[in-house]
Fold these 4 entries.
Entry 1:
Amino acid sequence: MTTAVAHPRTGGSGGRTAVAAAARQVLKAYGSGETRVVALDRVDVDIARGAFTAIMGPSGSGKSTLMHCLAGLDSVSGGQIWVGDQEITSLKDKKLTQLRRDRIGFIFQAYNLLPTLNGLENITLPMDIAGRKPDREWLDRVIETVGLSGRLKHRPNELSGGQQQRVAVARALASRPEIIFGDEPTGNLDSRAGAEVLGFLRRSVDELGQTMVMVTHDPVAASYADRVLYLADGRIVDEMQRPTAEAVLDRMKHFDTFGRVS
């Protein structure tokens, strides 16, 4: 049974929540009895609005599970998840699907672009499906920020891997979601293309006011974030503000390399 817990703290102008997403005593377990596996063990965390948060940990630490629960892609066994001022763990499937569509953006390691659509059509596809017209001024600003102005009429097979991932980034940004989740968003890219995409994610926070949460195993990728959360064995065991790649790598050396569910 889910236990009632406190609403995330509020603040800022107009009483808007100071956090974009929050977990309160979140438990995620699979199976039962001797085969029961705990992926998240009573996790409490706030994701700051307008900031870039990276989530790291060894394989099996629960980092992807935490992101999926925060994004409403996976259910919890106990505790509560908030997106802004909306508690989502009690939402029915239809309402949860609507929330993900309207308030959350996703960027995954696989670009998930439709091969028959050009760059612009792929960017606006979620809004087209929802029957909403994009804010043209915002869309133009997003496209300029990710550097795609000259590639909008090209189909995915005419774009490099880095350019395809930039289309995926622009697609996530285009609907002005409250928060964007990225699961190893540069995992399929070489170091140069990865650095370009990470730079675009960083600029989307600094210049567009976006909230970004990224799961990564890469210390260089994590160094683009404002804050790094470290998970081990289903718990948040440490965090780092204003990380550098060297500091992240050094911190990771202190953690056990075993875990349960990635």
Entry 2:
Amino acid sequence: MFNFVRQRKYWYIISLLIIIPGIISLLFRGLNLGIDFTGGSLIELRFEQVVTVQEVRTVLAEHGLEQSVVQLSGENQVLIRTGVITEERNQAMVAGLKDELGGLTVLRNDSVGPVIGKELTQRAILALIIASIAMVVYITWRFEFKQGLAAVAALLHDALVTLSLFSIFWLQVDSAFVAAVLTILGYSINATIVIFDRVRENIKGARKTEPLESIIDRSLWQTLARSANTALTVLFMLVALYFLGGATLKTFVLALIIGVTSGTYSSVFISSQLWLDLKERWPKTLRPARAET
């Protein structure tokens, strides 16, 4: 039978092949922050006739907005993201599009100031820190401190994989991305706890001479079908939503697709293996696993 735990160095290498280039990209290029963070305007329009992205860009260039992001979001619908502009300039742009390309309906016209964007960034980071600390405390109470550290390291892995791919491929990050990352952390920790719980049950019934590596590997095989079935069920729905849900959901759904895939991978190939490495390096357990009542 294939031994997951014995091959753990290869799982670590696979993760590092994504995370290290991602960290380099984050350091030198950063993230493609949307208007939720940088400030700007988001306008969604429905035209009465078919228009192309190039036609919209041409009109925007006449108003000095050639750097704007233009996306087709549906039948005759266009999403336009601009930098921070005045209300007068916003109205002039919409009027120019109407004059040049025909009748249109404004479906959405939102503005976010840079001050609000900075506050959102700070709150997003604070939310991630609080969530991580709370998970360490819960897992320490439920299992042991080393498992808490391993679980949070796996969560950090999932967050870094998602951030890395968004930075490398220069995908836009907005407030929906933050919600997706928090959702990913919740999904990933649940899968990890299921495996840790099975490991604990197997430790109780194992022979004293059976090595921990063997117990962990057996536990992974026992939970593998559940992990795979859960991930595939979620991914089927997310892929359908990505292609059918419209442009405004794409960032959120794509982040979830990456995160669910990474979360399933980390729960099977990373978290338990990290725990084993911590146990081998520091054999003394900080507190015993909590017995079930």
Entry 3:
Amino acid sequence: MNFIPDRFRNQCVLVVGGAQGIGKGIAVRLAREGASVMIGDVDQGMMVQTQGEITAEGGSVRTVLCDVRRKRDVQRMVAQTLRWQKRIDVMTYVAGVAELVPFTKSDEKHWDWTMDINLKGAYLVAREVAPHMVKCHRGKLVFMASTNSWDAEAELAPYNASKAGIFLLAKTLARELGKYGINSNAIGPGLIRTRLTAPIVKDKTFMSKYKNLIPVGRLGEPEDVAGPVAFLASSDADYINGVLLFVDGGQLA
């Protein structure tokens, strides 16, 4: 990966869901490019590990325990970030869950669990961060959507709906907050090798068929997503607002 040293120097980046997987890839990438990174997550152990890796490379990083379903947790996370750096220049929302459940066997508990983390959490964080960006008259919001925002998969009804909602949330904020110098966009990863996708990746029968759907011929890695996120968070993307950028190896081409 090619990094741009100091591209985010003197900027504070909040990575929600940054302890592992795609979120970790983003946190590491932006720290390498000079950002002061705050990681918010529910996995304390993985946060400590990721923090250690970033610190070992000379990066600036702090962590805060946050359950995105709880408004008070979100408020505390944002408050701690502001106490540390006095501002939030970039917020990227990566927290998310998915579980394959046939629709006729699904229930409210499964629906609410998925929606609360994937979509309500994104709303709560953006609602808390946006006023501070408005005051500064600048900011970048990058939400983690999915190829499922556009092309649904069976047995993932709440996940599909939540990721479609994430994109529409990003578009709505692009329209409302653009006049304040705030850009709001979404990334739509395809199948990326993470803990969330591990059960699917282990299914050799499924994977032998799925790989044929990806023109580049391989699964994505978290670093494949971190680069596009860094671009949307940078000044190079100042005139990009309200888009869903697919990062899927051409799966939806």
Entry 4:
Amino acid sequence: MGIAATLPPAALAAAATEADAEDALTALTRFVREDMAECNRAILARMDSPVVLIPQLAAHIVAAGGKRLRPVLTIAAAQLCGYSGGLRHVHLAACVEFIHTATLLHDDVVDESQLRRGLASANAVFGNKASVLVGDFLFARAFQLMVADGSLHVLEILSTAAATIAEGEVLQLVTQNDLSTTEERYLDVIKGKTAALFAAACEVGAVVAARPASEAQALRDYGMNLGIAFQLVDDALDYAADQATLGKTVGDDFREGKVTLPVLAAYAASDESGRAFWLRTIEESQQTGADLDEALRLMADTGAIGLTLDRAAEFAARAKADLDIFPDTPLRRALQGVADYTVSRVR
């Protein structure tokens, strides 16, 4: 049975738009195509180094693909705000992508991940030390781009996001194996580790266009809500997707004892036997080879995936509403459609 069969009405409603949600991402990509081509050139140029291992490892990351959603959002936000001042938005989009890629390199080392977007992760190919150090290199490149932009406001937004991401990752480590974690605490984790960069990526688009604070805040709120929805769906997919769809090993979060909303929802709705299972496998880290299948059964029995997707749909709807401050244009509709796309990834 596919995950679509378990989708709650709210999640289905959020994913149902006049055009297919996937088309919204395609439409948005079309709006930013030329600027993204320039951004990709900037990324490749800044990944270069006389230290051969750096461009080798960087090339491995690029080969893994990905939609580069965060830099797309930076460029689209700048276009939405009427930016026409040169290539600042392009270079800051590259900066955003460097921050994101650096965090992926570090995360895969921390999580001991073997797959990234369906391919062997960089740490699996090049080792943990190289992955951490090249991640540091990319962070440094990001800060060089911030400084080159020359705006203290931009520097504040993006440097704060970088620090917040690190805080979110540490908070996730603190909440790991702790089933007393509240939904509010869990949301703090994903706001930090994922949504903060979405928010910053969108906000700087308004800043470079010198738009009013109200528009910058609207774009920041859009990015924050979009990022929360994105991570909620990712956390649901860890228990509901096949490996080819997920691009990483299914059940990684379970094996690592990560306390995500699907786990919290299943634990809260389980009977005494189910709660004992979650306490043993998550809090005590005592797992057998058959435990993932049992976890998936309990997820299905308690409706935990449906609840998680309902919450994702709520945040996606908030993201769409955040953009109502802007004129109704095809670009605005494409950005709103990306919120639907975020939820539609579970179909």
